[in-house]
Each structure stands twice: as structure tokens, then as C-alpha cells.
Design goal:
The chain folds into two domains: 78 residues, no CATH class; 231 residues, Rossmann fold (3-Layer(aba) Sandwich). The protein has 15 helices and nine strands. The chain is globular.
């Protein structure tokens, strides 16, 4: 790795560059997402399953964030919820905790079919949310799986055929398997995807799921699922124009129970975000971007990763061609025994 020894001056210059701009926009690379702890509510105050409390302790989480403290009481009473809060506020656990609590409460088994479905817009988010759930469910026997359309359809069909209690999916892939399963049942009397006992549904990043490219798929999915279920719709930034607000109103009236709980969203006026788009993320979420020539990026990446110390890192690559040099960089930099755990904490997409 001689390149890094030779380019010490470059590394210093990079740090002096004014190209790193602090921005508040949830589409940029999130370098840190650590929600602040709430001083008001401990997880012990909620009537959660002991295995969930044990997992939260293992995850070093003892207090609910503001959005979690607002959502959990109603969610645990099996009420439909429409909620919006900034990125980094802890929304993921706000719906995963009641989801898992419900599954354990009903003592759902694989042969009962799928109990809960979480729909997200992208493969990367699907993997991320599933990863959080795996930590939350680490002391349970709940079987979960994910399908995001990046694999072979036949393999996904086999996965679903084995059964799972909780499923994480992207909309088009989920709709494909719902239709394919019904067609197979009509032709062969075999239904590989059993979702007729569904009790819990989540739409995460709802503002994106209700965009034109997914809106029809989402409506088809929700129309095909059992009506007697708990539904939670969450978003970091429900779009700021009047059209988007009206779309959310119509969607909520059509697919949520009339008594749904509305958290942090004004259904009768413009969202606060319309006045100040920078409010889309929490104050302690650091975001930024760097503009560099192609031949300088690996050097800067090395410098940036060194500064993250013991934190977990996700690298999103532009295409397959950049995987090899990045993998080699990480492997050579942390291949010693002292840093082997560090190497294992990287995820590369």
C-alpha cells in the first residue's frame, strides 16, 4: 500500500478542502445514524416480551427515542399508525419492536404462514432493516427472510416455500410472488407463499413507495392482503407538495382503519418540511459529499475509513468494476489479526 505513504500531502490537502459540505438531505450518504436517547421512557416501561428486552439490552439500547416513545404505546395496542419523523430518529425499531412482540404474542409458527410483511423501496434498505431485525430477534426462534428481486425468481420461490413468519420485501418482487403463488395454486393446487393469516404490515419509506413507479403495485398488494391486520405507514419525509399530502390522505382513508393514529403528520395542512427541507434529518446525523478526481478517491476513502475507527461501515459501489480495488484496499488494510474483526464489520453493496 505504498500509494498511501507517498500521498500524505494529498491526504492533508483533502482534509483542508472545502468540498465537504454539511447538508440536511436524506438522499445523501449517511455517515452516522445514532439516534439520541430519550430521557423520558425506558424500554422496561413498555410491556414487551422478555426476549425482546434481552435483545435490546444486548444491542446496548435501554431508552426509547422520541418517535419510539410516541409509536410504541399505540402500536402495542394493535392500532393502525401513520407516522413521519426525521432520518436517524429510530423509526426502524419503532415498528420492528411491536411487530416482533405481536408475533411472539400470537405464538406464530412457520406452518401458520407469514405473520408480518415489511415493504421497503430498495434492496439496500431491505437488507438493512432485515439486519436490525436479526439482532432484535436473536433470542427467539422466529424465522424471517427477505426477497428483493436481485436473485433468481425460482430460488426466491423455494425460499418462500420453506415458510417464514416475518418477510422483508421490495414491492414489485412481493407482488410477483403473490400472483405466481396464486397461479400455481390454480394449476397445481400448490400455494408456495402463504400470507392469508397476515396480522402485521409495514410500509417503510412510504413517500417513495407511493411514487408512480410503485403506487399501483402497493395498492394491488394491500388489496390482496387480509383486511383484519395491523398496518403501519412510516416515512422520513412525506413529500412536501400538496399533491403528495392529498395522496397520503386518500391512501390512509382507503387502507388504514378509521381510528388510525396520526403521529407527526398534519393531514389538514402543509407539512413543516415544506417550509424547511433541511429538517428531514435529526441534528446529530452527519451527512456530506466529496467531489474528487477518480484517481484520488481511493486515497480519500482510505483516510475516511481510518477516521471511523470502530464504527460499522457500509460502502455503496457505483458498479461491479470498482469492487475489486475496494475489497483489496480493505483486506490489506485490516488483514492483520488485530483488525480481523474490523474487516468483518464491513458490508459492500
Amino acid at each position: 500500500m505504498k500509494i498511501f505513504r507517498k500521498d500524505k500531502k494529498l491526504k492533508k490537502n483533502i482534509h483542508k478542502l472545502s468540498v465537504i459540505k454539511q447538508l440536511k438531505h436524506n438522499e445523501l450518504l449517511q455517515l452516522n445514524e445514532l439516534p439520541k436517547k430519550s430521557d423520558k421512557m425506558s424500554f422496561q416501561n413498555f410491556k414487551l416480551n422478555d426476549m425482546i428486552l434481552r435483545a435490546l439490552t444486548a444491542m446496548n439500547l435501554t431508552h426509547a427515542t422520541d418517535i419510539q416513545a410516541k409509536i410504541l404505546p399505540d402500536a402495542l395496542q394493535i392500532k393502525d399508525i401513520l407516522a413521519s419523523e426525521k432520518t436517524g430518529s429510530g423509526k426502524t425499531l419503532a415498528y420492528l419492536i411491536p411487530l416482533l412482540n405481536l408475533v411472539l404474542q400470537f405464538r406464530f409458527k412457520v406452518y401458520h404462514g407469514t405473520c408480518a410483511i415489511v415493504i421497503v423501496p430498495t434492496k439496500e434498505l431491505c437488507i438493512q432493516v432485515c439486519s436490525v431485525f436479526s439482532q432484535l430477534a436473536q433470542f427467539t426462534n422466529v424465522k424471517f427472510d427477505l426477497i428483493h428481486g436481485d436473485g433468481i425468481r425460482k430460488d426466491e420461490e423455494t425460499q418462500l416455500g420453506r415458510g417464514c413468519t416475518v418477510l422483508f420485501a421490495t414491492p414489485n418482487t412481493l407482488l410477483h410472488h403473490m400472483k405466481a403463488s396464486l397461479e400455481k395454486k390454480e394449476k397445481e393446487n400448490v400455494e408456495y407463499f402463504r400470507y392469508h393469516n397476515l396480522k402485521f404490515l409495514v410500509l417503510d419509506e412510504a413517500d417513495r413507495l407511493l411514487e408512480n413507479k410503485w403506487q399501483d403495485a402497493i395498492k394491488s398488494i394491500l388489496s390482496s392482503l387480509p383486511r383484519e391486520r395491523q398496518t403501519m405507514i412510516l416515512s422520513a419525509t412525506l413529500n412536501v407538495d400538496d399533491n403528495a399530502v392529498n395522496k397520503i390522505k386518500v391512501f390512509a382513508k382507503e387502507f388504514l382503519a378509521p381510528t388510525f393514529v396520526n403521529i407527526n403528520i398534519s393531514m389538514d395542512s402543509k407539512l413543516e418540511l415544506a417550509k424547511n427541507p433541511k429538517n428531514a434529518t435529526v441534528d446529530n446525523l452527519i451527512e456530506g459529499f466529496v467531489t474528487l478526481p477518480a484517481n484520488k478517491r481511493i486515497v480519500f476513502l482510505y483516510s475516511l475509513i481510518k477516521e471511523t475507527k470502530d464504527k460499522k461501515v457500509i460502502l455503496l459501489k457505483y458498479d461491479l468494476h470498482c469492487s475489486d480495488p475496494i475489497n483489496e484496499l480493505l483486506f490489506r488494510s485490516w488483514s492483520s489479526s488485530a483488525h480481523r474483526n474490523r474487516w468483518n464489520s464491513f458490508t459492500l453493496f
